[in-house]
Amino acid sequence: xxxxxxxxxxxxxxxxxxxxxxxxxxxxxxxxxxxxxxxxxxxxxxxxxxxxxxxxxxxxxxxxxxxxxxxxxxxxxxxxxxxxxxxxxxxxxxxxxxxxxxxxxxxxxxxxxxxxxxxxxxxxxxxxxxxxxxxxxxxxxxxxxxxxx
Length: 149
Hints:
149 residues; mainly alpha; Ferritin; 5 helices; 67% helix; 0% strand
């Protein structure tokens, strides 16, 4: 798989996520667990920054970021509470991490891997898995340690 193709797919993996959809929706005005809402909001900011880095890498490799479209099924989340949604987001993170693992395998199998692309794929794979674990811990009342602790 060419680096530009990998970046294009990664752009969609991050950009069309349930998390970013929730960031663009009215989730933050719903009553619910404030710690979970704060954590989700922080993750939205981190993922938007990551999406920007992927778009910059695409521009460097002559790729063009696609217009992102959220799956229509995400509209079914509007009336769900934050506790439940955080579990759905964690599951979505795990699925996206697996997608990144598969993209990494495809990149390396074709011997067309690019260091920047591989690095971004690994970062998204590892961070989405880490975010899933953190959300699952928060849902169980366990406060995960921050990177500074």
